[in-house]
Structure formats: C-alpha cells, structure tokens
Amino acid sequence: MLRAKEAGPPLDAIRALVTGSARRTDLLRVQADALRSRIAAAQTSLALVECALGCAHEDVTRCPHFRQPTGATGRAGAE
C-alpha cells in the first residue's frame, strides 16, 4: 500500500489496484501517462537550470541557448 502511494495515484485507484479490480490495467495506463508527463516537465525544468548554470552571459535571459528551451524566441539561436 505504501509503495503504491509513493507512485502517486489517488487512494481510490490504489484500492482498485490492490483489490484486483478489472479496472487495474486502465488505471495503471492512466498513472503511467501521468508520470511520463510529470517526468517530461521535470526534464525540461532541469535542462533550463543546467543551461543557466553553464551560461557565460551576464543576463541569462539574453542567451540563445537558454531562450530556446523556454520558447522565448520561437526558434533556436534567434535574438
């Protein structure tokens, strides 16, 4: 039960998982999609932080590498 809670699904989904509900596969697919989405968002955030850490620009918002992943320019390398 605790491991299931760590994965993040709501309690009603955990209940369906541990009771052998016929909805288990569907619930797991929904949870997997939600986790993939959260992971993708976290990876984007990490890329921005790592870009800013390695940037030599005094104003990181003027760096084309930093601006690219944020969508601030609309295309890579534009200023």
TrEMBL record:
The protein's superkingdom reads: Bacteria
**Known SUPFAM superfamilies for this protein?**
Putative DNA-binding domain
Q: What is this protein called?
A: MerR family transcriptional regulator
